[in-house]
Amino acid sequence: xxxxTATKIAILNGLILSVLTLLEYxxxxxxxxxxxxxxxxxxxxxxxxxFVGNMFVGPFWFIYAYYSKDVKLLQFSNKLLxxxxxxxxxPGVALTVINGLFLASIYGGTSKQPWLFYSIFLLLIxxxxxxxxxxxxxxxxxxxxxxxxxxxxxxxILVYWGIVGTIVMIPSLLVFYLMLTKSV
Length: 184
Prior knowledge:
Layout: H1 5-25, H2 37-68, H3 71-104, H4 114-146, H5 151-181
Helix pairs in contact: 1-3, 1-4, 2-3, 2-5, 3-4, 4-5
């Protein structure tokens, strides 16, 4: 199976962020603010908006294109999903995690705050669950590109994509909840 550039970047992004997060948690490396606290907070929240926003909005307009039964619109949505993953989701996750690590340095690092331990654990689960989602999404990209009229095959892939995509959203939403309700 041919893998898209967006998928390769997403996998590499997840691996790098996972390694950085674990290295910081186990105090192999440490992050100190390079910008003001407020700038890191703004960049962190901007990342959350990009990541969570695209995670919710993307499937809605993609499903709209699917139900329109317009092959050209579906193929356009297919390309747009790849573009928005590349330019919104991937940078959003990176901004969120990296600036989160900088912000955690104010409180002694991620290992000093229980809610951050759970957040890291949930993010690692999200990244692990993303692997099957990426595989399904690649199958979807190829099906829409090569055989967009094959509704039976596409229906099956879309059902899997919807189920696994929803499961992948749960850990990140729990992290969002922990971030909002934390006490430091």
